[in-house]
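Budget justification aside, the reviewers requested a transparent look at the raw inputs and outputs of the sequence design task funded under Objective 1. We therefore reproduce one unedited record. The lines immediately below are the structure tokens for a 347-residue chain.
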């Protein structure tokens, strides 16, 4: 059964945690926080955001749009986002790859995605350690050229990230023009759109986010000149192939982004247990030592991608090896870089 707030007290309960988070986002007196919501958003989150904003001396506005994506065509929305200091969007991902989002970031607005259930927000509350791992990841990826991933299941895939920026998520939007997602702990880059070559094997137990399921058997994807050219396997491959076909657009098959998670508190099974309430997605995407690859749109300013298509498919996997310019960073799902391991002493 889907859990929904049944009392206005649900918002009050969240005020201490949301206030702590808004402090991390550097919400200060005189700023304006916008809760960007749709008709399916959790109203307790808006209540808690308003209370947190007021406690910190900031103004608060809530905008409610219909639960389809028609709002993306509205210039009023873009202007409103630009006029606010922090936009907290309590709806699913489409807005992230919208022009409205890029325009708001260019104007210096901070943006934050907030969608997971409250107990997951608490379990994966941002920490200094996550920030540190994000900066270590940035240091590894920044200025790199070739990325290579391999696995015992049969993956051997290379691509180029030459000249592309590194996007680091740590669950906090605290700088002008920064977007983040609470909760999150991952570093991703958008490879050059025609560069991916080789084979990706999505092994059993890997997460097919858009299909709200874990693969039950291996799926073998061949990639040529940056895009998937074949998807082979059992029932999961059949469903994945059908899902890609719904886009009716070749650009859906292009690698959108690739990277790794560094959140050791993440629970791989959370998606299976909580997907019916929009939960557990960030557990798989941020999972410590995962290899997260996605296909489709990547036109978010912080990724610097060029692939514009109304399709996005995230696939967090485990047990991959990850190489950056020949240096091994992950060995079968475990970081080889001491600074990214949970047992690394905090400086
Ligand atoms: Fe993604």
């Amino acid at each position: 059964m889907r859990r929904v707030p049944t009392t206005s007290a649900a918002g009050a309960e969240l005020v201490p945690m949301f206030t702590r988070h808004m402090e991390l986002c550097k919400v200060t007196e005189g700023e304006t926080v916008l809760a960007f919501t749709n008709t399916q958003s959790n109203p307790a989150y808006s209540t808690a955001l308003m209370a947190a904003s007021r406690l910190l001396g900031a103004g608060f506005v809530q905008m409610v749009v219909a639960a389809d994506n028609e709002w993306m065509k509205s210039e009023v929305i873009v202007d409103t986002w630009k006029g606010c200091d922090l936009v907290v969007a309590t709806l699913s991902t489409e807005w992230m790859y919208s022009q409205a989002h890029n325009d708001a970031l260019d104007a210096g607005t901070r943006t934050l995605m907030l969608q997971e259930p409250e107990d997951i927000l608490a379990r994966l509350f941002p920490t200094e350690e996550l920030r540190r791992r994000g900066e270590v990841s940035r240091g590894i990826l920044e200025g790199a050229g070739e990325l290579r991933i391999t696995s015992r299941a049969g993956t051997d895939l290379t691509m180029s990230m030459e000249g592309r920026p590194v996007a680091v998520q740590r669950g906090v939007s605290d700088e002008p023009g920064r977007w983040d997602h609470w909760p999150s702990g991952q570093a991703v880059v958008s490879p050059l759109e025609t560069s991916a070559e080789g084979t990706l094997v999505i092994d059993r137990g890997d997460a097919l986010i858009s299909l709200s399921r874990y693969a039950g058997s291996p799926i073998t994807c061949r990639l040529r000149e940056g895009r998937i050219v074949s998807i082979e396997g059992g029932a999961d491959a059949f469903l994945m192939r059908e899902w890609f076909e719904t886009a009716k657009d070749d650009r859906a098959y292009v690698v959108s982004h690739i990277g790794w998670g560094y959140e050791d508190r993440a629970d791989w099974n959370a998606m299976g247990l909580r997907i019916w309430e929009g939960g557990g997605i960030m557990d798989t995407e941020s999972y410590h030592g995962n290899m997260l690859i996605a296909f489709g749109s990547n036109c978010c300013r912080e990724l610097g991608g060029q692939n514009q298509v109304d399709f996005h498919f995230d696939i967090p996997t485990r047990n991959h090896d990850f190489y950056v310019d020949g240096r091994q960073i992950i060995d079968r799902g475990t970081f080889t870089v001491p600074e990214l391991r949970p047992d690394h002493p905090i400086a």
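The radius of gyration is 19 Å. Residues 9-24 form the longest helix (16 residues). Computational costs for records of this kind are itemized in the attached budget.
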